Amino acid sequence: MEFLIVIGIAFLVIVPATYFFLNFSRESAEEITFYQFEAIGRDIVSTAESLFYSGESSKTVISLRMPKGIESAAIIDKRELVFNVSTSSGYTDFVFFSRVNLTPS
Q1: Domain region containing 89
Q2: Which residues of 22-45 are buried (b: 16+ CB within 10 A; e: fewer)?
Q3: Collapsing DSSP states into helix, strand and coil, what is residue 15?
Q4: Nearest 5°: CA angle at 97, between 92 and 102?
Q5: How many domains does the structure of the chain reveal?
Q6: CA 31 to chain centre
Q7: pLDDT (tens digit, 9 = 90+) per residue, 38-51?
Q8: S-S: 72 plus which of 11, 42, 84, 105, CB 3.0-4.6 Å?
Q9: Where are the beta strands (DSSP E) in 1-105?
């Protein structure tokens, strides 16, 4: 009888702890992905602006590793970079504004 009580108490501790750990792990992974998209967007806009101010014949290559979850990427009105990302709670848009055109005139 005491053995069953000990097993029951162990389950009462282990099951919620496992749930909280897995939930925390999932949220942390999603947060890291968000930070990666933020860094990528800022890098693209920053590079475009520096190339614009460097002159017409300036060129560069940006190597990026896109995280999982991206549904689409678009440039709107030549100055807005938009990433549509799939998350556990739906879709999220990451929008980055540039002071210069992101596409050729």
Answers
A1: 2-97
A2: eeeeeeeebeebeebbeebbeebb
A3: helix
A4: 110
A5: 1
A6: 7
A7: 999 999 999 999 99
A8: 84
A9: 70-76, 80-87, 90-97
Residue linked to tokens 């678009």 = 74
In a domain, 44, yes or no: yes
More confident residue, 30 or 1: 30
> What predicted TM-score, i.e. pTM, was given to this entire model?
0.77
Residue 22 or residue 46, greater confidence:
46
Residue 70 lies in a domain: yes
Examine residue 73 and state whether it is found in any structural domain, yes or no.
yes
- How many other CB atoms are there within 10 angstroms of residue 48's CB atom? 22
Which token pair is 56?
Answer: 């017409």
